[in-house]
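Internal tracking record. Fields below are filled automatically when a chain is submitted to the structure queue. Please do not edit lines marked as system-generated. If the sequence contains nonstandard residues, flag them in the REMARKS field before resubmitting.
Queue: standard
Priority: normal
Entity type: single polypeptide chain
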Amino acid sequence: MKFCKNCGFQLADEAGFCTNCGTAVEQAAPQQAYTAPQQPYAAPQQPYAAPQQPYAAPQQGYAPQQGYYQAAPKVSGLATAAKILMIISTVVMGFYLIPLAWCIPMTIAYNNMLKNGQPVSTGFKICTLLFVNTISGILMLCDKDQ
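SYSTEM-GENERATED OUTPUT FOLLOWS
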């Protein structure tokens, strides 16, 4: 069965013209077997080019810089222990509302200093020793990384 390419009318196999619209019907050429392309696959002209800028080692902190995320700073075991003891002291002092005025802000500030890789001042360490937790303050003072 053939169909007219102009109007879509069904035609007889031997028809030379469409009986509906009068368009000439192309005679189907005898089918040939599939032949492979004459030219073989051509490899790309240039090999893969490496990026123009070499990978830059990330700096401390979490802020993205030039598409890369920066690595978190290393935190010593003494700093982690001091942070945990500060949190415990803040929870224990929750029964006394007035000491929370300095325990919570100092604990949050110390956590932010550790996260951002900022140095912790000696005054902050001594205030922690006196007002938050004695052991935390001693651990902070003994920590050489801070």
